[in-house]
Design brief:
The chain has three domains: 7-127, 3-Layer(aba) Sandwich (Rossmann fold); 132-207, no CATH class; 214-455, Hypothetical protein af1432 (Orthogonal Bundle), CATH 1.10.3210. Helix 8 (214-233) crosses helix 11, helix 11 packs antiparallel against helix 12 (304-313) and helix 15 (361-369) packs across helix 16 (390-405). The chain has helices at residues 16-25, 37-43, 65-75, 93-98, 111-122, 172-180, 193-207, 214-233, 241-259, 267-273, 281-298, 304-313, 338-341, 344-354, 361-369, 390-405, 416-425, 431-450; strands at 7-12, 29-34, 54-57, 80-85, 103-106, 132-136, 150-154, 159-164, 185-189. The strands form three sheets. Strands 2-1-3-4-5 form a five-stranded parallel sheet, sandwiched between helices. A two-stranded antiparallel ribbon has the order 6-9. Helix 3 (65-75) links the parallel strand 3 and strand 4 (80-85). By secondary structure, it is of the alpha/beta class. Helices cover 47% and strands 10% of the residues.
Length: 458
């Protein structure tokens, strides 16, 4: 329910950063705030479905989170309930979901999901904002009638513009323009995603192609990465060697199913489909994994799967750093925080080892060295050029490439070749590897912009 004066939201024991984040995203909400166990015990029996648009709870009220989940589920079974926290030590998503929470959100990793939850469940009526979901241009056929609107995002202008109306489709001219600008995704209103999936399923059947669209494959990759991260950070998940073997098997399955599958025949199209996200930690991990593997395949590296694995794990240690360091590229880190920032590769490997996940030595070296620079001015050790592995160089390129090609408000979207030039200028990558990537991008960009669209669903 809601009224003209605001949207009723219940906040229970949120830590300071989580509370601030929720309040910044739930514009116009009216909050009932529970600070501690005493306030909770006095109030909970009066709560029922319909009183609040959503509940956001944390661990600061002095109540066991599982008991809190059970009480909320009993009192408000149909109300959406979110556990939100910034402290990984209270992170037990498996148990909390089992006991009644709809989602467990760890900040800042899950900020995009928190934003989506606020826009979807809290704000109602005329002030409800659109939630846009990215879909891959590969999935949209030229001239096809679409039962949904499509939009392009203009990061410099901070707005979405309509590409096609409902009942129309993307014209040849618009698709050529997207190809010229090397744009791999457009956007659909979240409420129209069911129609989008119906369209892609019908399209794939008519082409006799596989049953999963490029968009759905990318979403499944991101969901798989999030599930992997949840298990790694979940303090209730035991860290023994049997479970470590299960997790490495899970990682290998993610890579073979969503990262390297079909990469050889659809190299550049897959690259364009993997960039241009609005960016979050899971998308960054999945994109870096995919992009690193694609470049490894493109330049003939013998072990693209190892580099993909390093891409999944490379930034795990960022969760132990201050929030302001967790979602920015290295070049935006203040000089006085550079040493702390450079500690995250080792922290990433420590996270992997805590769960008894055994990775190949090349993967460990790539993770530990992915912020070292060919110029010798990287970190954490400032290694000279000859001591940095090729795997680390490819991973470093992919890491920077994803930041440079993502869609961010107020920043110009860079094409792959423009991103390449930015990376070349900073002296971070082995010149031999750069030369191979340059030849690859020039060849693929030229062929991709003039190639047939008939193959896009293969």
């Amino acid at each position: 329910m809601s009224d003209e004066s605001g949207y009723p939201v219940l906040l229970i024991g949120l830590d300071g950063p989580s509370k601030a984040e929720v309040e910044s995203l739930c514009e116009g909400a009216l909050y009932t705030v529970i600070h501690d166990a005493t306030e909770f015990e006095k109030a909970f029996e009066s709560w029922q479905d319909g009183m609040f648009n959503a509940v956001f709870a944390g661990s600061e009220a002095g109540l066991p989170a599982n008991e809190l989940a059970q009480v909320l589920q009993n009192q408000c079974p149909e109300t959406k309930k979110f556990f939100v926290a910034t402290d990984p030590k209270v992170w037990e998503p498996r148990l909390l979901l089992k006991n009644g929470f709809n989602q467990c959100l760890q900040l800042p990793l899950d900020r995009s999901l928190l934003k989506e939850a606020c826009l979807t469940y809290v704000i109602t009526g005329e002030k409800k904002k659109r939630v846009y979901k990215g879909v891959r241009v590969l999935d949209l056929g030229e001239g096809d009638r679409l039962d949904f609107e499509t939009y392009a995002f203009l990061p410099l202008n901070r707005k979405y513009i309509k590409l096609s109306a409902k009942g129309e489709g993307l014209t040849e001219k618009k698709l050529e323009k997207l190809a010229e600008n090397q744009v791999g995704q457009v956007f659909v209103d979240q409420k129209d995603m069911a129609q989008f999936y119906q369209y892609t399923a019908s399209k794939l059947r008519s082409l006799g192609a596989g049953a999963v669209s490029s968009t759905e494959r990318q979403e499944k990759l991101r969901e798989s990465v999030r599930g992997l991260f949840q298990d790694i950070f979940d303090s209730s998940v035991k860290g023994d060697f049997d479970h470590g073997k299960e997790m490495i098997s899970q990682v290998e399955g993610i890579i073979s199913s969503y990262v390297t599958k079909g990469a050889t025949s659809q190299w550049y199209k897959k690259l364009l489909s993997s960039i241009g996200d609005t960016g979050d930690s899971y998308s960054h991990a999945s994109n870096v994994s995919t992009v690193a593997a694609l470049f490894a395949i493109g330049i003939g590296h013998p072990r693209p799967e190892d580099i993909a694995m390093a891409g999944l794990f490379h930034d795990l240690g960022l969760t132990e750093l201050p929030v302001e360091l967790q979602s920015i590229p290295e070049w935006e880190v203040k000089p006085e925080l550079r040493e702390l920032f450079y500690s995250h590769p080792e922290r990433s490997m420590n996270r992997v080892k805590m769960k008894r996940i055994i990775v190949p030595p090349e993967v460990e070296k790539a993770i530990l060295q992915h912020h070292e620079k060919w110029s010798g001015k990287g970190g954490p050790k400032g290694l000279p050029a000859g001591r940095i592995s090729d795997d680390a160089m490819i991973l470093s390129f992919a890491d920077q490439f994803d930041y440079l090609t993502r869609l961010e408000e107020g920043k110009r979207h860079l094409s792959p070749l423009e991103a390449y030039e930015e990376i070349k200028r900073n002296g971070s990558i082995n010149p031999e590897i750069l030369a191979k990537i340059r030849r690859l991008l020039e060849k693929e960009a030229s062929e991709g912009s003039h190639g047939s669209r008939a193959e896009k669903h293969s």
